[in-house]
Structure to design on (328 residues):
């Protein structure tokens, strides 16, 4: 049996999220900002933070600028106990940033400045370092050079390493044919309804089947705006999960309690779901239990503003997981 020094390593864009809670997202006009704050972010980085909080030994590969935001991201990894020796400082660029407008219904609008993320290349990635992990989780970048980097990483990873992939909307727009070499190596694909349908030009269920036939072992699709709604003080989230032999739909309804004003901040919820699902997958649980662990993690996440603030520790996750089976 392989002896892993790190259990999970993330690779992807990392940035600072500048979040503005607004009364309404507008196409044109003016409205009031009710709350604003800045937090460390980045899809894969958020997931690795979540896995570290669950007790896994984790590392991360990425790029930041030589500036206060870069220092914030570096120190946030250090404080979480995550190995950041390959979180590289690129002096020629500013740290990446995201401006996100979030309204009370759960809708949000996001604007990305990639910054230093666009300066990471294959020479920055230590393949020997990656090869020590049980799981490598790769998330989206923002330009064509990084798209080629992702291809190279997927191709060079040893076959006994679990590989998970969150392509994001920019990579999904490349289409299934261009993504196929990565998908053929993917043990777990995490996407949303809009992106997987853009990737395949099919509805999400047919699209999921196409990804399975391309070589993905597991596909997790968070369903889009038409299936996430607020009604009578509640928000409902739906997720579709598929492997070669099984499929399941998950529905999760969260009450919007007035004393938790940030409960509908959905920023990072998908990354938190990925955290719980991957934790279950590494524990070799069936997809329904992996999905439940993902749902629990996402519920914790949306209870606090910011992608990482509400992520559960192992004790909290196990307690909520056990409560589900005790009450059902």
């Amino acid at each position: 049996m392989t002896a892993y020094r790190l259990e999970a390593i993330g690779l992807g864009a990392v940035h600072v999220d500048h979040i503005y809670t607004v009364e309404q997202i507008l196409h044109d006009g003016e409205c009031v900002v009710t709350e604003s704050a800045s937090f460390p972010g980045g899809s894969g980085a958020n997931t690795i933070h979540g896995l570290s909080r669950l007790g896994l030994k984790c590392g991360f590969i990425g790029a930041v600028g030589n500036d206060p935001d870069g220092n914030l991201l570096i120190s946030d990894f250090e404080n979480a106990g995550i190995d950041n020796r390959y979180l590289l400082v690129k002096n020629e660029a500013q740290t990446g940033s995201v401006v996100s407008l979030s309204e009370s219904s759960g809708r949000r609008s996001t604007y990305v400045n990639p910054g230093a993320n666009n300066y990471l290349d294959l020479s920055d990635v230590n393949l020997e370092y990656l090869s020590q992990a049980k799981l490598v989780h790769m998330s989206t970048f923002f330009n064509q050079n990084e798209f080629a980097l992702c291809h190279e990483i997927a191709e060079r990873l040893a076959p006994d390493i679990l590989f998970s992939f969150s392509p994001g909307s920019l990579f999904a727009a490349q289409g299934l044919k261009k993504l196929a070499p990565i998908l053929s190596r993917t043990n777990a694909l995490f996407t949303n309804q809009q992106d997987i349908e853009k990737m395949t030009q099919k509805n999400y269920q047919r699209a999921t089947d196409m990804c399975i036939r391309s070589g993905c072992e597991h596909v997790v699709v968070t369903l889009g705006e038409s299936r996430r709604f607020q009604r009578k003080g509640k928000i409902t989230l739906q997720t579709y999960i598929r492997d070669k032999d099984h499929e399941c739909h998950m529905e999760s309804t969260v009450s919007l309690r007035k004393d938790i004003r940030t409960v509908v901040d959905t920023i990072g919820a998908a990354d938190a779901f990925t955290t719980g699902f991957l934790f279950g997958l590494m524990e070799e649980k069936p997809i329904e239990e992996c999905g439940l662990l993902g749902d629990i993690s996402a519920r914790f996440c949306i209870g606090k503003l910011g992608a990482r603030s509400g992520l559960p520790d192992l004790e909290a996750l196990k307690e909520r997981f056990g409560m589900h089976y005790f009450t059902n």
User: Anything to note?
Assistant: The chain has one domain: 6-326.
